[in-house]
Structure formats: C-alpha cells, structure tokens
Amino acid sequence: MWLFPNDGLFPKNRRVGNASIDLKFPPIISTLKYKWRFSLEEQKTEGQRLVEKLAFEIKPCWGTAGEEDRLAIAEFAEDYKKFIDKGKTEREFNAECLAILKEDGFIDLETVLSQGKKLKAGDKVYQDNRGKALLFAVIGHASIKEGVNIVGAHIDSPRIDMKTNPLYEDGGFALFDTHYYGGIKHYQWTTVPLAMHGVVFNKNGEKRTVCIGEDARDPVFVITDLLPHLAREQMQKKADEFVGGEELNVLAGSEPFKDEKVKERVKLTILNLLNQRYGITEESFASAELEFVPAHKARDVGLDRSLIGAYGHDDRCCAYTAFHAARSFAGKGETQGTVPEKTVVCLLSDKEEIGSIGNTGARSRLFENFIAYLCSQTLERYSDIDLRRTLNRSAMLSTDVNAAYDPNFSDVSDQKTASYCGKGLALSKYTGVRGKVGGSDANAEFLQKVQRILDTRNIRWQFGDLGKVDKGGGGTIAQYAAHLGVEVLDCGIPVLSMHSPFEVISKIDLWTAYKGYAAFLKDA
User: Fold this and answer.
1) Domains and CATH numbers, the chain
2) Which residues pair with 195 in a beta bridge?
3) Are 507 and 74 in contact (CB under 8 A)?
4) Rounded to whole angstroms, what are the CA distances from 317 to 280, 383, 405?
5) pLDDT in tens, 82-112
6) How much is the pTM?
C-alpha cells in the first residue's frame, strides 16, 4: 500500500521522519536463518535441483523490489505521467525532449557542421528533424568506426486527424471531418472527450500552436455514437463496421451566428472563434496539422497503483525510457554523466504507425545521415566506407511496445511466449505478420549478448511474441535499421489495450526498461 497517500485508510511508509526503521536481525537469528536455509537445500530432490539449474521461470518483478526501489519506481512513474500529459503529439513530445537536451548542454549538430568543428569524447549533439523527429548522441572514447550503441523508438501514436477542408454544418451542428491515423478500432473513439492539438498558419504566414481541451477551463470535442434503443441494425454489423471511417466526425459546436442573412450560421460561429483566437480563415485548414487526441490525463490504475493508464503509451513509454537512458550519459541518471566507451545514439522517429514513411519516419535516411554526420565530424578523413563500417558494427534496441497477455482475451496469445505486465522487458526475437512477413528477426548471437547484459545487471526480462502465429502480428522500426546492416533487437514494454484511447502499462516495467536500456548502451 506504499503508493497510496495517507488518508487514514492505508498505512504510511515505514519511515520515522527522514530515518528508516532498522529491521536487521540479531546475530543468533541470522545464524538460525542460515541453518534453516541449508536444511531446506539438503531436502531438495535431484529433480528439483535440475529444475533450478535448467528451467527458465519468468517471475513478477515486484517480488525483488525493495522499499528504496519502490520509491524510485514511484517517482519515475510520476515524472513520466507528467511528461506524457504534456507530449500527446509527436511535435509536443519532440519539443519536451529538445528542451531537456538544451538544458543538458547538447549542441545543435547543424552548428557543428557549419563551423566544421571536430567532435571528441564527451561531446553532446542533437538534430531536430522538422520538429517531429529527434536524434542525439554522446560521443564515446572509442573510434566511431567501432560502431555505435543505439536505442530507437517512435513518438507518434494512433489518433484522429483533421481533413484539409474539414468544417461543415449539418442538423444545426458544426462538425469537423476527419481521417484516422494508424490502426484503431473506430468505435473506441466515440463518446470520448477529445482535445485538438497541432499547428496552423494565419494569413501572414505566422505559425500558431493549437491546444484546446487540455486545460480544465477549455471545452472538449467528441465523436457521437448511436443510442442502444435505435442501434439494432448497427449491433448486427461486424465490429469493424460499427462506426465507419467517414462517420468519425467531431462535434465542434451548435450556436448560430447572430445574422439570419448568412447561411451555415453555426459553421460561421466556429470560424469566427478560431479567427479571433488564432487569426486563421477557412483556407488555413489546407496547410494545418491538427490532431484530435483523448483529453484525459495519465492516471494510476488499480487499488495498489501499480499500473498507469494513459493515451499514447505506444510508443512513448519506450521513447521516454530510451530518451532518459541515453541522456543520462550527459547528465543525471542511471550512468551519472559517464562518458561512454562507444558513442551512444538515441533515435526518436515519426510516422511508425503508418509505415515509417516520409522524411520524418525511420524508413527515410534521417538516421543514416545522422551517423554520416557523426563520422564526418569525428574522423580525420571521412569516406563512405567508414560510414558503412560504422553501421555494420553498430548495435540497436528497437524500443517498441509489445502486446501484454490479457486474461479477458487469452485465446489470441501463446502463453508460453507472451509478454506479461509486471514481469520486465519483453525481448522479441522476431516481429512480422503470419510467417514473420514484414518483420525483423534478430541474430541468435546478438540476442544472447543482450540477454547476458541484462542478466549481469539482474534486470528482469521475458519473452515477447505478438500473439499466436495465425492471429495477426505487427512490425516496428527495427527492419529499417537492420536494412542498413545494424544488429537490432525489438525490446519493449508490454501494453494492455494497445492503440485504444486509454492504454495500460506496469510501473515496474517502465522502470525496468529504463534500467535495461541504460545497461545496453553502456555494455553492448
């Protein structure tokens, strides 16, 4: 009950002021405990000893967490919840990360390139790609030709995007026409309070940031649904036909403009309000990037507060932990500002949910170009051969989430290889769909190396297959790094209700991911 505030229902943490209660046993009790354990060991059968020696049992991580660990986990989770509430879109997440890097003393790589400055061990650089993808590095002691250690994640999440000519009036309502982004169950997004985020340009070409629905005083938006009394025909449809893509129209308002000589008076009211606040006209929608995301905040889930429910865990829980693991080599954190042996790189990309396409996605050359820039500024003489050698000797964790075993839907999972909430990092040797198509399959040698790193640091890990063979599957950015010759393994946090407006993860898996990613970057 240590995570509950003291409200009279649950006990306080076992502390008196700033001092912890001493629970050490006297020497005689310690001796008796040792003899008792030795006696139990003698009573074990040969089979029991073999099981301990040969079998691999995946156990919940909470059992090994002491009180100090639990306090650290709780603090880390609180920081994450605040961060993910501020970074609900790829632009916002990118901006939050960039602000932290600048505070840590990272330098824009464009400045380094323009000045022709050479980089040395301990130097810290970043590259902001159009405000929607971010790469940064801490230069290590070893030559970059020996390879770099990378953690990569994506910072986009499924959502509802506004169309380029979205605003219309029907039935006395103003509505926004939308196009969903990424793989969603349409019906999950109805009757959910939504917030509008994004950027839009006014007539003068000035970019304005939009955020409506996050402040408690703001209005919210909603996609309506049909009442059960009239939904008999709807309920006979397949689930993917309950609500069609063209029916995901967002309710924007209902008050008509006070001029009866004007048509579409409700639409005019909304246009006028947007113009007053952002200086835009209807034409501005053509170039705008406006997204609707759930308006709720990240919350603890369960009476024991061991879980976090929020929008966008996929893949921002892995992006957050990867980001902090990598930046810890330049400031506070797991590695306490230690200059790494090999150069450490973090890749936070966009567009994964729609195939990693575009110039901010992992399928583009943004990552390859970044490594080329590092080679050019750390080597005496740059050549394409050096770039290819660097990539071929590099190692990466593709830090993307996995589908957690859900007892409500157990038939889609192979329980022997499924990942479970609260049991640590999920290692996915392969991804893809039915026969590993469109996925990445890690080499046995590299997978064993990662396992050894985690085992050496006593960091819990588990298997991470994405469902039964013929039930479906998915992919990550791993395949695009592998295409460049990089050794890569998918390694992430199990998630319940993935791609829904309210996904769920375990706090201890979040903490384990951070610890695991930092260990990999240091030791790989």
Assistant:
1) 70-157+311-523 (3.40.630.10), 159-294 (2.30.250.10)
2) 293
3) yes
4) 34, 37, 18
5) 999 999 999 999 999 999 999 999 999 999 9
6) 0.90
